Amino acid sequence: MTKETFYHTVSMLEPNIVRQDTNMHWPIPPDKTVAMGFMKLATLCSLCYIVNQFGMAPCMAGVKTREVCQLLNNIVANKFICLGNLKQVIDGFNDKGSLTAWGL
pLDDT averaged over the chain? Predict the structure, then answer.
């Protein structure tokens, strides 16, 4: 993934990720949160590996990766994943003599 794509995704998710400062701790920056989510989705690494890479508690790593996955599914998926016209796709498979698109 390019740096531009990463920061574009961060900018789309940032309004839903940003948290307030509290007296107990500072919030995790949005780019760090998105990086944890992408690392979990892109590799087969465990949360223990993510905890060691980003230096945070295991419970927070789990919460943040789940949050990023849900946001990617709810917000970003509709902007990046576009399905074509179903009729054209089916006709294309039929023209090639393949009915495997229907599972037949």
Answer: 84
